[in-house]
Design a protein that fits this description.
The structure holds 2 protein chains of 2 kinds. Chain A is of the alpha/beta class. Chain A has 12 helices and 8 strands. Helices cover 53% and strands 13% of the residues of chain A. Chain A has an 8-stranded mixed sheet, with helices on both faces. In chain A, strand 2, helix 3 and strand 3 form a beta-alpha-beta unit. The longest helix of chain A is centred in the C-terminal third of the chain and has 43 residues. Chain B is an alpha+beta fold. In chain B, 59% of the residues lie in helices and 9% in strands. The radius of gyration of chain B is 21 Å and the shape is elongated. The interface between A and B is medium-sized, with 31 and 36 residues.
């Protein structure tokens, strides 16, 4: 057997092992659907909306917050214009007379964490949330969050279910499927007490958390991930409130997507290094024993697989081209043999299909959890595109980490 | 720490791997069985033609030439063996066994066609005995195989008999010694019983080496059986 292929089998084993664990978690504890129950008390909430050049989407974001089914005297929206150079501040002015809205402008410090801490210091609510200025919440999202904090006093932070806002092009459709898969695995991480990120769109924190562990840090422009890591380090509880739905705009071009994901991937690598003591440390439960090691090995395995595939593809093409030059044979398309005998039935193919089927099952479960609907185009885009684009941001993240190059969160 | 869950997941994953391994092996075994069946059919066909030839002698060449012998079946077998060799490896005992049977069938077909063409001049017999090695000592064998495959597809009447030089088969060893093939200088080709040609030849060279190709009908319907 090709020795290099052993690495691919190892990667497939890891991928299947991880998906099986998630599916076992699902069958152990299935997510309960939304109920009509209301919280007995509505805690005060401040939603921080940091924005840099979000003039195009700020207004609908704020309207979605103002439309929340939540007592108006308990909900404060804090808009922090983080040194925008577009019309963000003008757009924000339309809310200047809204009693629920506070407006602030600050000098940009190069990373989102500073804007969040700025807002944190200017609010005094019981719960603090953040919402990226290109995301939109469902009407009952905050009520669902409040219920989760009321049901369990030990919950210190909660992450929502995230959907893609009106996906149109192939890249957005691909991400719509990816986010739906994310809904499934975030819930399963919750079952295992191992949520690894509190995303910018509508994660909610108990204010006392910041007294215990401190405020947001720059953390390689992934303050949301670092906060989750820090909470695990302090054994503080994070849950996923799958009934709290937020929709978000996603990058619609390949360069923008690669920039965003490079930041996320690099954040994982750098934060992993800073919290390396949690790796394979039983004290940190599934987060230390499973999520961190599998995340890192998965990262390496995905890169290795991409290099393996590209190397084989390029060498086959080069050999073919050389053969044509040397043999003098005319160019022709390889003929298709409609005979089962010539169909690839390798073990690698069956294992790849098994991993794809399990991913599909996870996506379908994610659909049910968040009551969303994906079409054939969404799913086909994911399976056809994701494997091609993901290696770019993984490779770039490694490159940036090795060179310690600073790209900033805005790029 | 839920070790039980991890262990269960590990076992399920191992079971998925086991199932994939089993399926692959089952299908490869079916492929080998398929090759065996085809070889048996080819063997019967060759025997039948031999018998027919012996019965008729050179009295009725039309009956012989209206039953062209087995070129497609042999080509088909070559392609199938090539897939089996790729999947199971060239050292797999069953693959080696099937290659031996295939080589024997080729030799029998070659001898028979030679006899038929001598007695029936109307039967065109243009042959290439092609000796290759897949033990890493023949860098030109792949490209030579590509050229021969192309020629065979273009000229269905061209009979390319490809032999793995290293196959341990006494009939093949005899064919090799009769043609005085030098194994250190592969690829080697014996074209229409002429002197052995060594080394890689591109399409132009090959067409010059086989002027009889001009007498053969061409085909546009290409098949893609491998000459190696």
């Amino acid at each position: 057997m090709d020795i290099a292929a052993l690495g691919i089998y190892a990667a497939l084993f890891l991928a299947l092992f991880f998906e099986v664990i998630l599916l076992i978690s699902f069958f152990e504890k299935r997510p309960v659907g939304k109920t009509s129950a209301l919280p007995s008390r509505y805690p005060s909430v401040a939603i921080l909306v940091p924005c840099w050049n979000k003039g195009a989407t700020l207004a609908p974001t704020i309207h979605s917050l103002l439309d929340l089914d939540y007592p108006k005297d308990k909900l404060n929206v804090v808009i922090i214009d983080d040194g925008s150079t577009d019309n963000t501040w003008e757009v924000a002015q339309q809310f200047v007379n809204e009693p629920q809205v506070s407006l602030y402008q600050k000098h940009n410090e190069g990373s989102k964490y500073a804007a969040l801490n700025f807002g944190l210091a200017r609010s005094d609510s019981e719960l603090v949330g953040c919402l990226d200025a290109d995301s939109f919440v469902d009407k009952d999202a905050m009520t669902e969050m409040a219920k989760a904090f009321e049901e369990d006093a030990s919950v210190m932070a909660a992450a929502p279910s995230m959907k893609v806002n009106q996906p149109r092009n192939l890249l957005e459709l691909m991400q719509a499927t990816e986010y739906t898969f994310g809904i499934f695995f975030k819930k399963m991480f919750d079952n295992m007490a191992a949520i690894s990120v509190l995303p910018g769109p509508f994660s909610i924190y108990r204010r006392s958390l910041f007294d215990k562990v401190g405020t947001f840090r720059k953390a390689y422009h992934t303050e949301d991930m670092e906060m989750a890591f820090r909470m695990h380090a302090h054994h503080l509880k994070i849950v996923n409130v799958h009934t709290a739905i937020v929709t978000t705009n996603v990058p619609n071009t390949v360069p923008a997507l690669i920039r965003q994901r490079t930041r996320w991937s690099r954040g994982f690598l750098e934060n992993s290094r800073d919290y390396s003591y949690m790796y394979l440390n039983r004290k940190y439960g599934n987060f230390g024993m499973l999520v961190l090691p599998v995340g890192l090995i998965g990262f390496i395995a995905a890169l290795y697989s991409a290099i393996y595939i590209v190397y084989n593809l390029v060498s086959a093409l080069v050999l073919k081209a050389l053969s044509f030059v040397q043999t003098g044979l005319p160019l022709h398309w390889p003929s298709i043999r409609l005979d089962w005998f010539y169909v690839d039935t390798s073990m690698m193919l069956f294992l790849t299909l098994a991993a794809m089927v399990m991913t599909l099952v996870a996506v379908l479960i994610g659909q049910r959890i968040a009551n969303t609907k994906l079409g054939f185009k969404h799913i086909a885009s994911y399976f056809l595109l994701f494997g091609f684009v993901a290696p770019f941001w993984l490779a770039r993240a490694v490159w940036d980490t090795v060179l310690s190059s600073e790209r900033g969160w805005l790029t | 720490m839920p070790w039980q869950k991890y262990t269960l997941a590990f076992l399920i994953t191992a079971a998925i791997f086991g199932t994939a391994f089993y399926l692959t092996n089952r299908l490869d075994a079916r492929r080998l069985a398929d090759i065996r069946t085809t070889q048996e059919a080819v063997s019967i066909d060759i025997l039948s033609t031999e018998t027919q030839f012996e019965l008729l002698g050179n009295l009725d060449c039309t009956a012989i030439s209206s039953n062209p012998v087995l070129s497609d079946e042999l080509n088909n077998l070559a392609g199938r063996l090539s897939v089996a060799e790729e999947n199971l490896g060239s050292t797999n005992a069953e693959v080696v066994q099937l290659k031996k049977q295939y080589s024997l069938l080729e030799i029998k077909d070659y001898i028979l066609m030679k006899q038929i063409s001598q007695k029936c001049p109307k039967v065109k017999f243009v042959s290439v005995l092609y000796f290759y090695s897949n033990e890493g000592n023949c860098p030109d064998c792949g490209r030579t195989g590509d050229v021969l495959t192309y020629l065979r597809q273009t000229y269905p009447g061209l009979r390319v008999y490809s032999f793995d030089f290293n196959l341990d088969l006494s009939a093949l060893r005899t064919l090799i010694s009769l043609n005085k093939i030098d194994g250190s200088n592969l690829p080697a080709m014996v074209i229409n019983n002429r002197a052995t040609v060594y080394g890689f030849k591109n399409l132009d060279d090959m067409q010059k080496l086989i002027p009889e190709l001009k007498t053969l009908a061409t085909s546009t319907a290409a098949t893609t059986t491998s000459a190696k």
